[in-house]
Write a structure and sequence with these properties.
single chain, 320 residues, alpha+beta, 2 domains, seven-stranded mixed β-sheet, rod-shaped
Length: 320
């Protein structure tokens, strides 16, 4: 899908075959979502240059991600979180920025793009391509911050649930372990996305093309500082998550130790009566207890004492 955002109208137009764009009504932002070859050709015609394909946007080498030539910036983020819930697979995100037009190429829905498109439709229609690009970067950072805050809230709730339950159950710990793994995935994805955006901003702050403008350069510096704060918060989340993971594994280990302790006590206290039963169960005619009037009752009492005595010793040693 190819979406046009015009500088002198508040309406966004979805492209379809046969649409003619007037030269006096050139869009300032072309948003391509999983574009077809025909949509890509239409966008290249408006841009006046080639657009990167998915393989080029996904390249991890720095020389392929960030390029500047002839007043055209090509900025690629190989790993970007497309889904609102941060559960989907990472997809690449590419930008082609000129003083007059911004082209974004993405392969998944994004809450940041949705919010910015709604803002443009309402009150950002007079902004240039560079202004829209900076607003888009800010929207991406804001969505990442909201997602991190949501993960932090879930982490606090899960921590409260685990540490407030004294009698841990296997199902609860298993669910908590799965939840920790899910949040770890979210944090890693958000870290990858913010890292890509951070490198783009750092590159722009270093080269600072003249048409970018000093005010926009300062604005990018502010966004860069925000990403630095997000990185610190991300590190705190990672530390808390690691602590919670260690705690869950520790509780699981303690529960397993309690089970092994019970099994060990049961096996130890049953050894003496089994030894006595083995002795009295031998088929020798010379065993005198066989001829005792109360030999059977005496054997049962002795075996009972052999069970109770170790239990009392374990209790006295506070082993259970």
């Amino acid at each position: 899908m190819l979406t046009f955002h015009f500088s002198n109208t508040t309406k966004s137009h979805l492209w379809h075959p046969g649409v003619i764009i007037d030269t006096n009504n050139t869009p300032v932002w072309l948003d391509l979502l999983s574009p077809t070859d025909e949509e890509r050709s239409q966008a290249e015609l408006i841009l006046g240059g080639k657009l990167p394909v998915r393989e080029q946007i996904s390249a991890i080498e720095l020389s392929s991600r960030l390029k500047s030539a002839n007043d055209t910036l090509r900025l690629n983020i190989p790993a970007f979180v497309p889904a609102e819930s941060s559960q989907g697979a990472l997809t690449p995100l590419g930008f082609v920025l000129t003083p007059t037009v911004l082209v974004s190429v993405r392969y998944g829905e994004s809450l940041a793009f949705k919010h910015l498109a709604e803002s443009i439709d309402s009150d950002l229609s007079n902004n240039s391509s560079v202004d829209i690009f900076i607003e888009l970067i800010e929207a991406i950072v804001n969505v990442a911050a909201d997602s991190m805050e949501a993960v932090g809230g879930e982490l606090s709730t899960l921590s409260s649930t685990i540490f407030s339950n004294r009698n841990h159950q296997g199902a609860l710990l298993k669910k908590a372990l799965f939840k920790v793994g899910l949040m770890q995935r979210q944090i890693v994805q958000l870290r990858s996305a913010t890292l890509g955006v951070s490198r783009v901003i750092t590159y722009l702050c270093e080269i600072a093309p003249p048409w970018l403008g000093s005010e926009r350069h300062i604005h990018l510096k502010t966004v860069q500082a925000d990403i630095g704060s997000l990185n610190e918060f991300d590190q705190q989340l990672s530390d808390r998550l690691q602590f919670l993971l260690d705690a869950v594994l520790g509780f699981i280990n303690n529960d397993q130790n309690d089970v092994m302790k019970v099994l060990t006590i049961v096996s130890v206290v049953t050894i003496p009566p089994m030894v006595l039963a083995g002795i009295w169960g031998m088929n020798f005619k010379s065993i005198p207890e066989y001829d005792w009037p109360h030999g059977y009752m005496m054997a049962l009492i002795v075996m009972a004492i052999s069970v109770i005595a170790p239990l009392l010793i374990f209790k006295w040693k506070k082993w259970f």
